[in-house]
């Protein structure tokens, strides 16, 4: 390693040590308002439609995917 490369690496590592680090804002406070029945129903329905329905469709048509045409 030449002297200039070593100086460049030292300058870059020193620069990264002085940069501010953003920390995640994690709060563990209780909810401001309780979730209603409709909120829970909408959340569960959307999870079902987005994740379980497409994967179920693929699994039910797996045999047709295996066939070579």
From TrEMBL:
Associated pathway: Energy metabolism; oxidative phosphorylation
Keywords per UniProt: Membrane, Mitochondrion, Mitochondrion inner membrane, Transit peptide, Transmembrane, Transmembrane helix, Ubl conjugation
SUPFAM superfamilies (alphabetical): Mitochondrial cytochrome c oxidase subunit VIIIb (aka IX) (SSF81431)
Transmembrane segments: 42-60
Taxonomic path: Eukaryota, Metazoa, Chordata, Craniata, Vertebrata
Any Gene Ontology CC annotation: mitochondrial inner membrane
Gene name, Swiss-Prot/TrEMBL: LOC101366217
Membrane topology: Single-pass membrane protein
Keyword Ribosomal protein on entry: no
Function: Component of the cytochrome c oxidase, the last enzyme in the mitochondrial electron transport chain which drives oxidative phosphorylation. The respiratory chain contains 3 multisubunit complexes succinate dehydrogenase (complex II, CII), ubiquinol-cytochrome c oxidoreductase (cytochrome b-c1 complex, complex III, CIII) and cytochrome c oxidase (complex IV, CIV), that cooperate to transfer electrons derived from NADH and succinate to molecular oxygen, creating an electrochemical gradient over the inner membrane that drives transmembrane transport and the ATP synthase.
Protein name: Cytochrome c oxidase subunit 8
């Amino acid at each position: 390693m030449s002297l200039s490369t070593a100086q460049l690496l030292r300058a870059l590592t020193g620069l990264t040590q002085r940069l501010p680090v953003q920390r995640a804002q994690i709060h563990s406070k209780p909810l401001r308002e309780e979730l209603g029945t409709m909120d829970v129903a909408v959340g569960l329905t959307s999870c079902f439609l987005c994740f379980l329905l497409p994967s179920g469709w693929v699994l039910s048509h797996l045999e047709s995917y295996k066939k070579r045409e």
